[in-house]
């Protein structure tokens, strides 16, 4: 595995790979890798001849009150995991390489951002879209891999790729979970022992919603109320939101049909966890 810190060198290497007929799978991350990230690498390796993993903690997507410096980092650990999963290139640019000057042009995301996590993080997805547009042009991928744990991000990226006519596929990958159902996340390490025993209730409450829908319930308000009651009875965390929308356009639906997402965020003492399920209602 080759480690690259230069934008120009990464572009040249990606172009050289494509010139030999190799397909490129790209996994963009902010590092502190866990099994969820590794599932993306596995998928990329299975579907492409060459795999690029990027690690870049993007300052543009951190808003007021969000501590960029406190974001967890462990490059040596990440490097070992990336190499063990067969990544061919690890793109690890410093901030001054990605943003050598204040950007004269940035992306503005106009849809799919005023709900779920985007509602409380204005400008966050503008920063995500801006850095991804740069990374896509640097790595020149054929397929790009994102985890569905952050389903809103996947929806925003799908819009970005469609609107800007990027010539590659977005490949969403299912959420990786612990044995008890808790979604894998770098934030899980901040849970107390008691909170860790409660955290799987997030997924259980989503499965309750799925069961209600499969039993014929179509009223979104009643489904959300059932999820909230389950969490209140089983979990000490504070519910930030429980929302139900069409997917990927993230629009309200009163009587459910088609592809939908049920998503939530719950605040514990030192960690805010998100989870969701996406399902198809065919009637």
Short description:
Helix 5 crosses helix 6.
What features would you describe in this structure?
The chain contains 9 helices and 9 strands. It has 283 residues and is an alpha/beta fold. It folds into 2 domains: 2-173, HUPs (Rossmann fold, 3-Layer(aba) Sandwich); 186-276, Pantoate--beta-alanine Ligase, Chain: A,domain 2. The strands form 2 sheets. The protein has a 6-stranded parallel sheet with strand order 1-4-3-2-5-6, sandwiched between helices. Helix 6 links the parallel strand 5 (143-147) and strand 6 (169-173). Helix 5 (124-139) packs across helix 6 and helix 8 runs antiparallel to helix 9. The relative contact order is 0.13. The mean pLDDT is 95. It is found in: Cytoplasm. Belongs to the pantothenate synthetase family. One of its GO terms (molecular function) is pantoate-beta-alanine ligase activity.
């Amino acid at each position: 595995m080759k480690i690259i810190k230069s934008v120009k060198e990464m572009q040249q290497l990606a172009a050289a790979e494509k010139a030999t007929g190799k397909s490129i799978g790209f996994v963009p991350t902010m590092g502190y890798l866990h099994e969820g990230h590794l599932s993306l690498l596995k998928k990329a390796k299975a579907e492409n001849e060459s795999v690029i993993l990027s690690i870049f903690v993007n300052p543009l997507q951190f808003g007021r009150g969000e501590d960029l410096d406190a974001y967890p980092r462990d490059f040596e650990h990440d490097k070992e995991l990336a190499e063990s999963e067969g990544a061919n290139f690890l793109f690890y640019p410093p901030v001054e390489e990605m943003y050598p000057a204040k950007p004269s042009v940035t992306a503005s995301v106009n849809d799919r951002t005023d709900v779920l996590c985007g509602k409380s993080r204005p400008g966050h997805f503008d920063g995500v879209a801006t850095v991804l547009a740069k990374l896509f042009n640097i790595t020149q991928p054929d397929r790009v891999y994102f985890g569905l744990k952050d389903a809103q991000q996947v929806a925003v990226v799908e819009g970005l790729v469609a609107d800007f006519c990027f010539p590659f596929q977005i490949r969403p990958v299912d959420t990786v979970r612990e044995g008890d159902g808790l979604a894998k996340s770098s934030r899980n390490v901040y849970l107390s022992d008691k909170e860790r025993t409660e955290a799987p209730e997030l997924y259980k409450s989503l499965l309750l919603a799925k069961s209600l829908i499969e039993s014929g319930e179509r009223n979104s308000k009643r489904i959300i109320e059932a999820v909230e009651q389950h969490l209140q009875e089983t979990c000490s965390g504070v519910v930030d939101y429980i929302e139900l929308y069409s997917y990927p356009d993230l629009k309200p639906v009163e009587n459910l049909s088609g592809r939908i997402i049920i998503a939530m965020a719950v605040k514990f003492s030192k960690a805010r966890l998100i989870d969701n399920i996406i399902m198809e209602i065919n009637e």
